[in-house]
Every structure is written in structure tokens, then in C-alpha cells.
Amino acid sequence: MPLVCVCSPKGGVGKTTLAANLAYTLARGGSKVLAIDFDVQNALRLHFGVPLSDGRGYVAKSADSPDWSQSILTTGGNIFVMPYGDVTEEQRVEFEANLTRDPNFLARGLHTVLNYPGLVIVADFPPGPGPALKAMTELADLHLVVMLADTASLSLLPQIENEKMIGGALNHRSGHYFVLNQSDSRRNISRDVTAFMQQRLGDRLLGVVNRDESVAEANASQQSIFDFSPVSAAAFDIEIVGKRIAALLDIKVGDGEMQAPLRSR
Question: Which Gene3D superfamilies does the entry link to (predicted)?
Fold first, then answer.
């Protein structure tokens, strides 16, 4: 059960879009993939064709339900999604409080999916530090930190390198890696930051995703970049990131077959 956490020290970096397309590229390799949303914005589901009006999710009943897999939605193909769901402010506060005070709260709720043979999990987190990101530290196999090719992201790099984002190491298994998103070689700053990041991070930089208008257009149509524009630069770049993650976590290319059906609604 490889579990990849997609996070960022700042918002507006295309993190959720990258998480969704990463799930798509891993599913294209034959794996069954579960995308889990830990962001109250509840936007990850939209990338998999779940209607905006569908407010189902696991958070609202997380304190009462011992098995959050009951909130999994099928999206077709090899991909499943567990939305955050529509919640009240009180429900959000209670969820985050449970994550903070109960060290086993997350593992207990995800027990079924964490122990499902061959399932790959991609979890999307809100930007910056937070109780969900901190609670996931011991469970995740790899953290993928998404940055932009701009000076604002560059200024936050020491925060990650010095383990200040959550007050300690992000990951205790395979570690954390980076993706530089929306790099634009036509702009001097973007080109310079990309070159600096490549030199500074070395093998820790799993990929550079070029700025591509097809990504926004695919989002608008609730499709993956691979379905919307399979020959686009972004599709090529994200597929490389997916292959490198698969190699790091020894994710075997499968045939999409399940050991038993995932619990879904």
C-alpha cells in the first residue's frame, strides 16, 4: 500500500491539479489508485468528474465512523476518490482537533485502505502546515512538495530543508521530494529559479512541469491532462514524475485487478 502525500508550503501552486493528474498517471500504469482529499476546499473530487453538487465526504462523520472507506466514490477505471465533503465550521474544527489529540485517529479511520493489497494512495493536503499533514508523517511512504518556479517559492525552500514546516521531518520512510510546477522558459525569473532548484535539489527534484494552458482547460472539462491533451508538455512531465515515484516506492505495474472490491458508494 504505497501512500504518497502531496503538499506545499504555500497556496496557488497547482498542488491539487498535480495530485489528481499524478493519480491518473499511476492508474494508467495498471494500479488501482485512491485519491484522498484533506483540504476543506473539497476540490480534488472535481478533477475526477464528481459533480459540484455532490457534497458527500468522510470528514463530517469521521468521529463516529470507524471506517472512512465507506465514503469512497467510484469514478470509473482504476481510480477511486475519498472527498473531504461539505462540512460545517464545527465539523472542520472537530476533525482537526481529533487529528491533533488522538495519535491513532488517522490510522484508525484509514485502516481498511491502508491494508488493501496493491492499492496506491495519493493524498492531497491544504497548503502550509496543518494537523492532517502532521498526523500523516508516520503513515506516508513519500511526501511530494510542490513548488512554483518563482521567487516566492524559492524563499520558502529553507523552511522545508530545515524541517520547519511541521516542526520536524515530513516523512520517516522514503523521505520528501520536490516537483517544480508551471516552469516557463520564456520568463527570465522562472528560467533562473528552475536552474537554481535543479542544481540545489539534485535527485530530490523528481520533475519540472512546464507551464501548459492545456492543464487549465483539462480542469475546466473535469478531465485528466492525459485524456484532454495526451501529447502536451505537461502530460509528458507529469508522467515522468509518476514513473520516478513508482520506481522509488517499487510500485509494480499491474493489470488493474482487485483482490476484493473496494468499499464504495
Answer: P-loop containing nucleotide triphosphate hydrolases (3.40.50.300)
